[in-house]
Amino acid sequence: MRVGLGLGLVRAGGSLLGTFPRPLAAAASSRSQALVYGQHGHPAQVLQLKDLERAELGHSGVHVKMLAAPVNPADINMIQGTYAILPDLPAVGGNEGVGQVVEVGSHVTSVKPGDWVVPVNAGFGTWRTNAVVSEEILLKLPCDIPLLCAATLSVNPCTAYRMLADFETLGPGDSVIQNAANSGVGQAVIQIAAALGIKTINVIRDRPNLQEVVDRLTSLGADYVITEEMLRKPEMKDLFKKVPKPRLALNCVGGKSTTEMLRHIEHKGTMVTYGGMAKQPVTVPVSAFIFKDVQLRGFWMTQWKKEQTQNKERLTEMILYLCDLIRKGQLTAPVCTEVPLKDYQIALEASMKPFISAKQVLIM
Ligand SMILES: NC(=O)c1ccc[n+]([C@@H]2O[C@H](COP(=O)([O-])OP(=O)(O)OC[C@H]3O[C@@H](n4cnc5c(N)ncnc54)[C@H](OP(=O)(O)O)[C@@H]3O)[C@@H](O)[C@H]2O)c1
Fold first, then answer.
1. Minimum-distance ligand 1 atom for the alpha carbon of 356
2. What stretches in the chain show pLDDT beneath 50?
3. Is 289 in the pocket of ligand 1 (CB under 6 A)?
4. Would you please indicate which residues are annotated as catalytic (active-site) residues?
5. Are 275 and 73 within 8 A, CB to CB?
6. How confident is the model over 336-355, as pLDDT tens digits?
7. Whose CA is nearest to atom 28 of ligand 1?
8. Dihedral sign, CA of 150, 155, 160, 165?
């Protein structure tokens, strides 16, 4: 079976938008395996660990040995067939991860054996042991950061960084409110904001081990951690005696959580929606528009990266900034559970359970 050979087509809303930069083929390795799905459905049921054919490196190929790749909600939605972009099938699962360059063709200039690399765009199919790809779809990473940081850097911390940087001009002392604050993105928001002196008000769902999660987020630099129920209580007024009302709200959830969060946003503040974990629409009280003139925006990292295809300067600048925070100990990987590739079903099931609070990372 030849998976990922050539370029697949990306479907969004049923129309064909362009090419999906998938790896050229499996690499020249006797143990080249990948998690492949031939139809959409429940991930643990439709994914299979398969051996792939050996590929030629050629003059412009880069042989990447994948090291570690997380299971993100977008990966699950892609396999379920509910994500905004879908590869042609069969496809290899996974969009994020870090690999090491093993060998390069004679025309390759931007990477060399030993380098750590991450995919530039979604659709790479990172849940595999090896791939031969073209250098354009790779971004070099410094290899002096921890492996789990590298494996989880290019989606969530980048999303957190862009949302903090691109929608409101925030400075030390300003505040941001976010829900699903214990998510991968949420943990990155807490740490990047803390490094910039921005206060965070972090909303999470109530749970049996609430104090444990509160303590963990506080140790990352969260200023306030509250439950969704607390958002509706009059005591919120006391909180805003200590911290200014947020000009930026980051919405990962939708539904009631979003409506309640919006009540606390500053006049003319912005709410950025980047996730819809509750699978509920965003409902906005008319008062938020009339009396507060709030702005509702959205963010999609995939689109942002696509817009940088011609010029990777801003992408590289962001990655280097984040790596710097990692080296200074100001940005850590989310809590991760490392799972060998062969035990992928355990990782997939765990990633879909509520209150797990740990990112499942496949180790190749
Ligand atoms: N737009 C973009 O560019 C972009 C980029 C990255 C991520 N995302 C999206 O952001 C979201 C989080 O991604 P991630 O990788 O950070 O996820 P993650 O680490 O797996 O965390 C998932 C989070 O969602 C919460 N959650 C799950 N179901 C929920 C529900 N029904 N109601 C409220 N909260 C719920 C979880 O809270 P509990 O602990 O309470 O279960 C947890 O905080 C996903 O929707 C993802 O697709 C978007």
1. 39
2. 1-21, 25-29
3. no
4. 83
5. yes
6. 999 999 999 999 999 999 88
7. 277
8. positive
Domain 156-301 has CATH 3.40.50.720: yes
Give per-residue pLDDT as tens, 135-179: 999 999 999 999 999 999 999 999 999 999 999 999 999 999 999
Query: 3-class SS at 343?
Result: helix
CATH 3.40.50.720 segments of the chain: 156-301
Cβ–Cβ under 8 Å, residues 251 and 261: yes
Structure tokens at 282: 């965003």
Atom of ligand 1 nearest to the CA of 276: 45
Find out whether the beta carbon of 278 lies less than 6 Å from any atom of ligand 1. yes
Residue 129, sorted as left (phi over 0), alpha (psi -120 to 50) or beta, turns out to be: alpha
Give the tens place of pLDDT for each residue, 326-338.
Answer: 999 999 999 999 9
- Regarding the beta carbon of 359 and ligand 1, being less than 6 Å apart is answered yes
Tell me which CATH homologous superfamily contains domain 8-152+333-363: Medium-chain alcohol dehydrogenases, catalytic domain (3.90.180.10)
Minimum-distance ligand 1 atom for the alpha carbon of 303? 3
Residue range(s) in the chain whose domain bears CATH number 3.90.180.10? 8-152+333-363
Residue that the structure tokens 């942002």 belong to: 304
Any atom of ligand 1 within 6 Å of the Cβ of 78:
no
